[in-house]
Design brief:
By secondary structure, the chain is α+β, with helices and mostly antiparallel strands. It contains 6 helices and 7 strands, in the order H-H-E-E-H-E-H-E-E-E-E-H-H. It has 2 domains: about 30 residues; about 160 residues, Chalcone isomerase (3-Layer(bba) Sandwich), CATH 3.50.70.
Length: about 190
Amino acid sequence: MSRKMILLAAICLVLFLSAAVTLRSRSTEPAPVPDDTKAAGEKLIAGYKHWTRVNPEPQMVQAQVSQLCAVATVKPVPDPHHDKYITVYVNEIGRHAMMEEKTPHFPQGSVIVKEKLTTPKSTTPELLTVMIKREPRYNPESGDWEYMVVDGNGQSVQERGKLENCQSCHLMEKDTDYVSRKYLPKELAARLK
């Protein structure tokens, strides 16, 4: 091979890698959430405190879960689980799968809201993370779940969609339809069928 061909191949490779890095960095930046999508997200979880409360007492997020999330979280976004307590709620559509099925399959329309609390006595969450079971083929790599991050008051959607930060951890929970249920009370977990 001539030197010109080798040089041309090297230049093409550098351009290709540069383009790939640029595309990758763009894909990890959260896309702005349109106002109509924000309003729909806020409406979707309005009144969630009247849904089924999954864990009666706030649970400290297990250190291993927090560490996994820290690895998956795109910096400089902080790990939303580090030194946090959680309380989880599920809407009526997803209640049976969450509360009664050992290997659940959540139906379309299931919504799970996880409050992030600074202490077990906190009355106002600092953040809400939400999972929404969407139509088939919406997100097959992650069980057709959509993820949403909302401020603690449930009034401002910060991110929504196929969020890589969330999805990467939930991929490890494929056997339970991508939902980690480590927060289930032991007596409830023992009764699952």
